[in-house]
Write a structure and sequence with these properties.
Residues 1-6, 197-201 and 210-240 have low confidence and may be disordered. Helices cover 26% and strands 30% of the residues. Strands 8, 9, 10, 11, 12, 37, 38 and 39 form an 8-stranded antiparallel beta sheet that branches. A 5-stranded parallel beta sheet has the order 2-1-3-4-7, with helices on both faces. It has a 4-stranded antiparallel beta sheet with strand order 13-14-15-16, with no helix packed on it. A hairpin with a 5-residue loop joins strand 21 (440-442) and strand 22 (448-453). It has 668 residues and is α+β, with helices and mostly antiparallel strands.
């Protein structure tokens, strides 16, 4: 990322901060601090605290109710904007607002892109990013760059254990970014870093030399002896630390088991589980904490459309708002229920409504045979697909491709940007349509779509509409297909009583799971850890995605009952499941199959189930009752569970209780 006539040129050091880091905390909360620290320390003179001043909101903002005002002041005082690009950042309103301010007040030439997740594709002919395939940038950057900008690819660092300058690969990446900020070539900057390092070592050695000259042999001998003792002590301490770690893990697991099996008082159960997790954060401790907090969930908000008993809903993927619809109306609303925009629909029944993965577009399927594409934020009509008796539809991640599935079992692929029909395929008829569309799935990138056809599952190129891969092995064609979050894997399931996991690159079969009845609606969890499906006996089944070992088998309804619908929480730690009748929706632990909570408002028949993107809310759409929003705390991270435990039981364990369970007394 060196300065060049076609890429960012370093302005003079004229402002308080050399750069402002714009990022999504959920996606890059670990990587952003590492980038900040690396830039501040790379090529740092020994006599200065930092080489560069870098602004990041977690370290640079004072506590103020005027959050945007503080951010804007920091932007004004920054020479560069560093965008940590990812799909989550692309959907973030804060990132978009920061980029928007920068383009209005600065130049795209001082905007540096660091790719942490997703993809970037430059279209040389169009002189812009290929927005059909680019998933990591906010749309505000359309036509922002006069020519292709260089970017730093840090996607590998998302799973790296060491993101510090001690790791050569990370240090090299930071050097490339720092070269632009310093206004130097990469060779110059690395040379400067070496010189600074050499100077520091030389000064250190000079000090040591003077000290050696001034000390006596006796002192030197004493120092050597002390160093030897210290080294031996450190070795002993390392052994103690390893032993202590094992002891803490054992104590944590024992305490977690005690909380679940040997304690009747619910408050004490919560306290013991929380203490187990604090002692050592094992899976058993987190499971115990979630289970001790389990219980009925009450709705916090009801959403009712006028003049109808149907109230279905889905959250915007960016968490900005939600879509509420019934048979004749569709409204974009705030998560508080305040109406933002009503979609201008004709007087015709709506079968289905769904967002694209980025939230850029949403699609509605109506009884008049028209599939309509709308702007996902403003509700403005973008495209009407010609009438073709559609029954359901789905959009790819960036909203540039639409797949409609009609009652004649024709699946038609459309270019949303031009309205052109790209291809037609037959799909395997399914007895029940829902907003999950189990017979088809777009890849996370959006450049492929998998489809269950009468002759077997296929993968189709979304640019050409042509089949690029056919998956062979099922005794009967499957009725369900789903991509893994990274797009590298595909699962299929159906009437031959098997679930199969395939490598999408070449169609190689990796895992086959056999079952005793037909399988439906196979899905990966958002973290890629689990595979799930329901069977013809109305049981929810969950498998470890890496090994194929089944972890849970939960009976939801009688075998002759209605179909099931289910969805995972965004972090993959819970699954929400319900039958399409008047029974309650339930939260299930995918690792154990334990029922964690029942969403207690039983009025109405369940039709849509969705978590908000941050997992903090659950939206249940109903037939015959209002849509309802429930708290999603129980499906949260371990930190959120500890906070929930503190709210439920504000006190701590007493000294007597700690002694009872073999814990050390608190330090008062």
């Amino acid at each position: 990322m060196n300065p060049s006539p076609t890429n960012p040129v370093a302005p003079a050091y004229s402002r308080k901060y050399r750069a402002f880091i714009s990022y999504n905390q959920a996606a890059d909360g670990r990587l952003a601090p590492a980038v900040q620290t690396g830039l501040q320390n790379f090529s740092k003179p020994w006599y200065r605290r930092r080489a560069l001043r870098i602004f990041r909101d977690q370290t640079g903002l004072s506590v103020t109710p005027e959050l945007w005002g503080s951010i804007e002041r920091a932007l004004q005082e920054s020479d560069f904007l560093i965008l940590l690009a990812s799909p989550a950042a692309a959907a973030s309103k804060w990132v978009e607002q920061e980029v928007d301010w920068w383009l209005d007040h600065r130049s795209a030439r001082q905007l540096l892109i660091v790719l942490t997740e997703g993809d970037l594709f430059w279209d040389q002919a169009a002189g812009d990013y290929d927005w059909r395939r680019t998933t990591a940038l906010p749309r505000r950057l359309v036509k922002a760059f006069p020519e292709e900008p260089l970017f730093l690819d840090l996607r590998w660092a998302k799973s790296a254990n060491d993101t510090s300058l001690r790791r050569p690969k990370f240090a090299d990446a930071i050097a490339r970014l720092a070269a632009t900020l310093h206004g130097k070539s990469l060779d110059e900057l690395i040379g400067e870093d070496i010189r600074q390092h050499t100077t520091t070592l030389r000064l250190f050695r000079m000090g040591v030399g003077v000290l050696l000259v001034l000390t006596t042999l006796a002192v030197v001998t004493a120092v050597i002896a002390l160093q030897a003792r210290t080294t031996a002590g450190r070795l002993d301490q390392a052994g103690i630390t390893a032993a202590e770690k094992q002891a803490r893990q054992t104590q944590s697991e024992r305490l977690a088991a005690t909380a679940l099996n040997q304690v009747a008082d619910p408050n004490r159960r919560i306290l013991l589980a929380a203490e187990a997790f604090r002692i050592h954060p094992t899976d058993a401790a987190e499971n115990a904490l979630r289970r001790t907090l389990a219980g009925p969930l009450e709705s916090v908000l009801e959403l009712q459309l006028p003049g109808s008993s149907q109230n279905y809903g889905v959250f915007h993927p960016g968490g900005l708002n939600l879509l509420l619809w019934n048979e004749t109306q569709a409204r974009l609303c705030e998560t508080s229920g305040t109406v933002l925009q009503e979609l201008k629909l004709p007087a015709t029944e709506i079968f289905q409504a769904t967002f694209s993965g980025s939230g850029r577009h949403l699609a509605t399927v109506s009884k008049d045979g028209v599939t309509r594409i709308w702007n996902g934020r403003t509700g403005e009509l973008v495209l009407e697909v010609p009438p073709d008796e559609p029954a359901t539809a789905l959009l790819n991640s960036d909203g540039s491709r639409l797949l409609t599935l009609n009652v004649n079992t024709e699946a038609i692929l459309w270019n949303v940007l031009t309205g052109a029909k790209l291809g037609t395929l037959r799909f395997l008829e399914i007895p029940f349509f829902s907003d999950q569309v189990p017979v088809a799935a777009f890849s996370p990138i959006g450049n492929r779509v998998a489809l269950c056809t009468p002759s077997g599952p296929v993968i189709v190129d979304t640019d050409t509409g042509k089949i690029v891969l056919t998956l062979t092995g099922h005794a009967q064609s499957p009725r369900s297909v789903s991509y893994s979050p990274d797009g590298h894997w595909l699962i299929t399931a159906g009437n031959d009583r098997t679930l199969r996991k395939w490598r999408t690159l070449n169609g190689q079969l990796a895992i086959t799971v056999s079952h005793d009845s037909e399988l439906r609606d196979a899905q990966f969890s958002p973290d890629g850890r689990w595979m799930a499906a329901w069977d013809s006996d109305r049981q929810l089944l969950i498998w470890n995605a890496e090994t194929g070992q089944r972890t849970a088998r939960v009976a939801i309804r009688q075998p002759d009952g209605p179909p099931l619908c289910f969805t995972f929480s965004p972090n993959g730690r819970c699954v929400l499941v319900a039958a399409y009748d008047d029974g309650p929706a339930e939260l299930i632990d995918p690792q154990s199959g334990d029922r964690l909570a029942s969403l207690s408002d039983s009025e109405g028949e369940r039709r849509t189930l969705h978590f908000s993107p941050d997992g903090h809310q659950i939206l249940v759409g109903n037939l015959g009752a209002p849509a309802r929003i429930f708290p999603g705390d129980l499906a949260g991270s371990s930190e959120e569970l500890l906070a929930l435990a503190q709210r439920r039981v504000p006190r701590g364990l007493t000294d007597a209780e700690r002694a009872q369970y073999g814990l050390t007394p608190r330090i008062h």
